[in-house]
Amino acid sequence: MSEAIRELLKKNHMSVTDSRLQILDLFYHAPGALAHADIEKKASDKIDRVTIYRTLQTFEEKGIIHTIPSSDNSVKYALCKDQCAAGHHHDNHVHFVCDNCSKTICLDDVLVPEVKLPGGFEPHQSNMVVNGLCNECRS
Amino acid sequence: MSEAIRELLKKNHMSVTDSRLQILDLFYHAPGALAHADIEKKASDKIDRVTIYRTLQTFEEKGIIHTIPSSDNSVKYALCKDQCAAGHHHDNHVHFVCDNCSKTICLDDVLVPEVKLPGGFEPHQSNMVVNGLCNECRS
DNA sequence: ATAAAATTTGCAACATAATTGCAAAATTGT
DNA sequence: ACAATTTTGCAATTATGTTGCAAATTTTAT
Fold first, then answer.
1. DSSP string covering B28-82, please?
2. Which of A60, A89, A133, B85 has its CA 20 to 30 A from that of A80?
């Protein structure tokens, strides 16, 4: 198990360190996306705040995780599913944020639709976040 | 001019104060969305930081402005165009963020398309942000 | 296996951003 | 014009994010 994670780091030319293994592990076992604060809590005092910031940053640069925008100053991060496939896939899927449990989920199979922009605007990237009730909270 | 703004405040059961008039005025004359920091600079030292926070919060609660999500912990606010119309209109338009000048613009005429969610998910609200080059930066 | 080179970590200091309580000031309703 | 209500500004506090640097760890080359 942990072996796969090591490979992932190596493949991306990153040193294999404790913090990175731990944080990646958190992502693999998390029910949804994680914010910096979540990691800080879960990885309990073994990892320095600064290290978490830097780790998230490099993970993002390497395309291992991606950010999920939010409306309340609390960016979350999630694993890039297709990371293991050939290079940076950067697929554009929709994200879901539950209004009840506030879990943030990648809807990997729902792609962000194209929209027609007014003349002069040149799109490069799109993000879509849907709020509502997740499958678990709609009991 | 300022009279319209006063009316807007009254209509929403808010006291008409200097700070509010000033901040609303900023929004009406801004080229795009504004972040807390923008307001703090432009309203230059007359208005307390805390007042700005509270004003933005109440404006949002009253449906006068809305937030635009971002991927970098920097929420921006923009006027709700249809606010003056019958009650909270809450139309769902697409937002555009320029990668070059980083202006954030409401594309009031481009509506967020519907997407089909996996079973069990109940959508309430959708947000879509497109990054790229704005009409002015694509000279 | 070991030593040198390169990378990463943790600490400390700092900078910025956001929240809260409360008294003073301003606004509203009568 | 006055009392009641709301809003503001200040001070204090907490949370969030960044930077430089020396020590520790990991990698690479021998």
1. HH-SS-EEHHHHHHHTTTTS-HHHHHHHHHHHHHHTSEEEE-BSSS--EEEE-GG
2. A133
Rounded distance in angstroms from the CA atom of residue A45 to the C1' atom of nucleotide C11: 14
- Other CB atoms within 10 Å distance of the CB of residue A10: 11
Per residue in A50-82, pLDDT tens?
999 999 999 999 999 999 999 888 899 999 986
Residue A120 corresponds to which tokens in the numbers above? 């002069």
How far does the CA of A15 sit from the C1' of C2, in Å?
Answer: 20
Architecture of domain B2-132: Orthogonal Bundle (1.10)
Q: Which of B94, B119, B127 sits opposite A71 (nearest CB)?
A: B127
Among residues B80, B94, B33, the alpha carbon closest in space to that of A116 is found at B94
Domain ranges of chain B: 2-132
- CB-CB contact of A35 with A76 (8 Å): yes
| Confidence band for B1, pLDDT divided at 50, 70 and 90 | low
**Residue A78, amino acid:** A
Give, in degrees to the nearest 5, the angle at Cα A31 between A125 and A47: 90
Average pLDDT along chain B: 91
